[in-house]
Specification:
Elements (H helix, E strand, L loop, with lengths): L4 E2 L9 H10 L18 H17 L6 E6 L2 H13 L4 E6 L2 H10 L4 E7 L23 E4 L1 E2 L4 E2 L11 E4 L16 E5 L10 E6 L16 H6 L9 H16 L2 H22 L16 E4 L4 H12 L3 E2 L10 E4 L6 H17 L2
Parallel strand pairs: 1-12, 3-4, 3-5, 5-8, 8-9
Antiparallel strand pairs: 2-10, 6-7, 9-10, 11-13
The protein binds pyridoxal-5'-phosphate.
Pyridoxal-5'-phosphate binds next to helix 3.
Length: 359
């Protein structure tokens, strides 16, 4: 069967050449006589793969030496608990509530201390990201927390705030590696893999080393960043195959020209859609222009029946998973790094055809 263009928000598309490489190496990896899935995580053959994966991420994101890279499990959501458990030494943190996942992270942190929402767009259905310049961050906060891209609402921060001496923690699950991020502005960056990195089941962490060792005494061993760092993410068996798949994805991105090159392509892809949406008489984009996501493009007709008809119409033409998140309705086209330009062009063509038929 022919592959479809999959606009799923996550797990999401993986580049075809990455899948083909994985297929070719599935049964026997290089000259090892076994699948990566069958390797001991302590074996030198696997440790080589692990170290290469780490080195590739370090190179792609220009991660300075003062930062540790961890490959953990539990997805991004486990870090909603791990962040306060590892950083809340005085029991206070500042959160920006810019979307559903940001909200969930703040709610989880409340179980461990005082969470102050310093900016929020919740009352406006998260149609924009609250402005952060001029925000009064609390100097006594153990950390400040933002979500760089809001997957469900299709919004993103285009500038990273300066939180001074307070370490900035970012959930970058849905836009990591899609645009350049200056790692030095952050204390911690984490991202679930299933949007822009590879298969689900892996969470990539970038942590400034001076933030290690601040964990709560009750922090579970497997959520303890310092312990994981001392054990090179292998306190127990890591997601060995997921890490290998991330390696293939990182190599693909490197060979394409890295983050600056994919960013150009991402801007081009997003503009194809937004330009059409801005001129369409049928579809509109609810996210405010100045904070539109490059990764998740949300749009509506204003009529739930027409929305549903469009989703069906597109699926019949090989464009799948365009239904918006169940909490907001409408449509959402997730166009992560691995979505080819042709997929977005085809989507615009299909939207145009649908608009004509429904004029
Ligand atoms: C998908 C997503 C999550 C949840 O990721 P899991 O790996 O399912 O826990 C959290 N934050 C953001 C921004 C996301 O896009």
């Amino acid at each position: 069967m022919e592959r479809v263009y999959n606009f799923s928000a996550g797990p999401a598309m993986i580049a075809q050449s990455v899948l083909e490489k994985a297929r070719d190496e599935l049964v026997c990896y290089a000259d090892k006589g076994m699948s990566v899935m069958e390797m001991s995580h302590r074996s030198s053959m696997y440790v080589d793969i692990f170290n290469q994966t780490k080195a590739l991420l370090k190179q792609l994101m220009n991660v300075p030496d003062e930062y540790e890279i961890l490959f953990l499990q539990g997805g991004a959501t486990l870090q909603f608990s791990a962040v306060p458990l590892n950083l809340m030494t005085s029991g206070k943190a500042d959160y920006v509530d810019s979307g559903n996942f940001a909200h969930l992270a703040a709610e989880e942190a409340r179980r461990y201390g005082e969470v102050r929402i310093v900016a929020s767009s919740r009352e406006d259905n998260y149609t924009y990201v609250p402005a952060l310049d001029g925000i009064r961050w609390n100097a006594d906060a153990d950390y400040a927390y933002i979500t760089t891209n809001n997957t469900i609402y299709g919004t993103r921060y285009t500038a990273i705030p300066d939180t001074g001496a307070v370490p900035l923690v970012a959930d970058a699950s849905s836009n990591i590696l899609s645009e350049e991020l200056d790692v030095t502005k952050f204390g911690v960056i984490f991202a679930g893999a299933q949007k822009n990195i590879g298969p689900a089941g892996l969470c990539v962490m970038i942590i400034r080393r001076d933030l290690l060792g601040r964990q709560n005494a009750l922090c579970p061993k497997l959520m303890n960043w310092e312990l994981e760092s001392k054990n090179d993410s292998m306190l127990n068996t890591p997601n060995t195959y997921g890490i290998y798949m991330a390696k293939l994805g990182f190599e693909w991105l490197r060979d394409l020209g890295g983050v600056p090159a994919i960013y150009q392509q991402n801007v081009y892809k997003a503009n194809l859609l937004y330009d059409y949406l801005d001129n369409s008489a049928l579809f509109t984009a609810p996210a405010r222009r100045e904070c539109r996501s490059l990764m998740n493009v949300t749009f509506v007709t204003g009529d739930p029946e027409k929305d549903a008809a469009f989703v069906k119409y597109a699926a019949a033409r090989g464009l799948v998973n365009l239904k918006g998140h169940r909490s907001v309705g409408g449509m959402r086209a997730s166009i992560y790094n691995a979505m080819p330009v042709e997929g977005v062009k085809k989507l615009v063509d299909v939207m145009k055809a649908f608009e004509k038929e429904n004029a």
